[in-house]
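Each field is set out as follows.
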Amino acid sequence: MSTLTKPSHIGRKISRIRELKDMKQEALAQALGTNQQAVSAIENSETIDDNKLTEIAKALGVTVEAIKNFSEENMINYFNTFTDNDFSNIQGAIGGQNNACTFNPLDKLMEAHEEIKKLYERLLQAEKDKIEYLENIIKSK
């Protein structure tokens, strides 16, 4: 068995990044100005020229280095950093803001319900006025 490592398959990396971004081949093809078959061919290629790779990276919203260095193991490690119960990283990322609710959601729901009731009452009154107006027209004829 050879101790040589398998060469990096750039097409598979592109495919996996596209899938993680919940993007279909057709959408990537449209962003690249090509067709789905061409994207399929790219994803089956072991190597891609740098100009094309730059276009693909831009269409995917990532850097060329992100594509070249992509691995499933790195993704798992990256997402595992978010499973900590330590929220200091999150607070640091948003400027230390406290994101607790400053209002009671039930109160907001009740306010919305009361507003809807008032709107229905106005609609009902408008309909009553319309009926009265039409009845007056009929009586006057």
Q: What stands out?
A: The domain at 10-84 is CATH 1.10.260.40 (434 Repressor (Amino-terminal Domain)). The helical segments are 10-20, 25-32, 36-43, 50-60, 64-68, 72-80, 88-93, 105-140. The mean pLDDT is 82. The first helix runs from residue 10 to 20.
